[in-house]
# Entry
Amino acid sequence: MKITTGGVCKAGTTLVNKTGGWRSFRPVFNYEKCKKCGLCEIVCPDMSVLPKEDGFFKYNYDYCKGCGICANECPADAIEMVLEEK
Amino acid sequence: MAVNLEDKSKMVVTEGSYAVAHAAKVCRPNVISAYPITPQTHIVENLSKFMADGEIPNCEYINVESEFSAISALVGASAAGARTYSATTSQGLELMHEVLFNAAGMRLPIVMTIANRAVSAPINIWNDQQDSISQRDTGWLQLYAEDLQESADMLPQLYKIAEDKEVLLPGMACMDGFILSHVYEPLVLLEQDLTDEFLPAYEPEYVLDPKNPMSFGAFAAPDTYEEFRYLQEQAMQNALPKIEAVAKEFGEIFGRFHGGLIDEYRTEDAEVIIMAMGSILGTIKDVVDEYRARGEKIGVLKVRAFRPFPKEQIRKAIKDAAVVAVLDKNISIGTNEGALFTETKACMYNARCDIPIIGYTIGHGGRDIRLETIAKIIEEAKEVASSGINTESQFVEVREELL
# Structure
């Protein structure tokens, strides 16, 4: 590997680093309360909120670090942060 | 600089800021970010007018909400392959500090004009060079202009150096605020056809493009970070000969030469050499002419490139003098020295050359620099040549009655 000028590199290579292991709290959707507004998808800094065919959303737990922004911002209070336990 | 006789018919009387804005225009920028701050504002105002009049094709002019945004916008634009320009000064430049490192580390050839001004507090809008000198470690090229014509001529030169594949670093074209930015002088506005001949379009190696996604400004762990720093330093060293070559080529096309890395004035047999950067050189040259008329061997060394620092050229220029006095419009508080003085001494230390070098910090916050003050410095330097250094570095004039 050679360093390119300014360190420009192929995009998306960090997909090999499954950062979900950093998580201490896991966001869980309550589909009874969810209004499908999609704010969680927009605010997720790690693109770990994925739309489903039925209009609801799901998490990609391989990369969700459990930051909780989605739960904090959810206007319907439809996301619960659950403690990760072994 | 002596007036080129062929230029006389082309000269117009304009403000320095207009000449610089016009120079930026003929360099065909693709993105200009603008945030007003005295004494730089006239530059972006003039560019705004050029935009409104449709005189800058294929260009976006972005009014931003702070200098932090001004430079951040250019980082994105430059990564997307645009030739970019902005102008700032003083607190505005200091607000950019963090992003200046990013621009340099990402190797983006952004060019900015700095209308040099003192920094707060106390608030002061007048000229010294503390603002850009304080950014000397950010990895930006820094050139300092002596007069209005050079402030304008510096822009196409700086684009050409910055965009060179072996350099790829951002650059600051520094001009003294008010003294150069707000003064009207006869000068030649850069011709579009000659500028096009001199400065080819920017061809970036990598482009931020959604159709071909790439990561810019990615992370580097301890196992690679050091190499990034090494490569930046190499790029700076590569810029040394480029600055000389580009200044020479500019001279061939436009007929004007303002010096490469340095410029020597009556130094050939000089016993006393005065070193400085920027508009103060004109005042120094006037005084030196008087000394020369009386048969005294005094010379002037203009330092045009502060980053990269032209150690070899400076060594060669001053090694035969009996004494050197370095004038700085800045101070590194805690050393009692200006930056040019400290770095000049440093580059001489291992050169087995022990001529005395003395330093003066001068013109802080726009205090007038009078001919008598320069003459006083020359007299003190002459004394150092005969009896050694008494005071190594000092403020040139402190009003004792205020202390």
Observations:
- The longest strand of chain A covers residues 25-29.
